[in-house]
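Hi everyone,

Forwarding the result from last night's run.
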Amino acid sequence: MYEQILYEVNQQVATVTLNRPDRLNAWTRVMETEVTAALRLAIDDESVRAIVLTGAGRGFCAGADMSLLSAVSQTGRSSQHREVTSNNLPVGQRQHSWLLSVPKPVIAAINGPAVGLGFVIPLYCDFRIAAASASFNVIFSRRGLIAEYGIAWMLPRLIGLPRAIDLMFTSRKVDAAEALSIGLVHRLLPDDGFAAAAQAFARELASTVSPRSLRVMKQQVYAAQSQTLDQAMDVAVEEMLASLQCEDFKEGVAHFLEKRQPNFSGR
């Protein structure tokens, strides 16, 4: 079904694996189309409660395939290379940043080098879990490029302006330990058993918390980045009143009182 990715669903977790291990999963037009299709499939699948995005082999994603960059360097920006522009897409649906609108938690399981576009994409995931051997490199300034795909907006919000400037301007390589220390990743896990540990985290998220709560919270958190405190408070009041009427609230109280595992419906 897919040429450059793998897709599977197991125990309420959909896993999308970039699958060009011989090229460190360098990003192509085909890969983008397939990742988008797989994510849409996961969104529409009611059995899926969490999504994992990872890479095959020893890398997460080495960035845009150099054949694409080479062609663009010779011809300039053109309609043949739609990967380099997203300004013609609707607000909230721009390339890669649209992950923020996915109504389910998206977990980047970064198993190796995350470079260029491979650095950017995890920024738009809700969780970034890194293997001990993972590394990170913005790389754009060393390719004569700029802060692509909204990274100038997103990265400072995640790690602070001074650190974002450091990583973007220098394009220096950051190891997994430093990535954890500056808040670029949420968790650091051993290489041995990394994939299984990432899956275990996703399954826990899928089975122990309300899908409805996560869906609404995700909307709140990212919308709040452009709201005032008063606006965010108003939204919270409306959503709280709505949550009190939902099935997941009733189940949240019931499973606690009955001392059993929750069985959330997502409604």
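The radius of gyration is 19 Å.

Cheers,
N.
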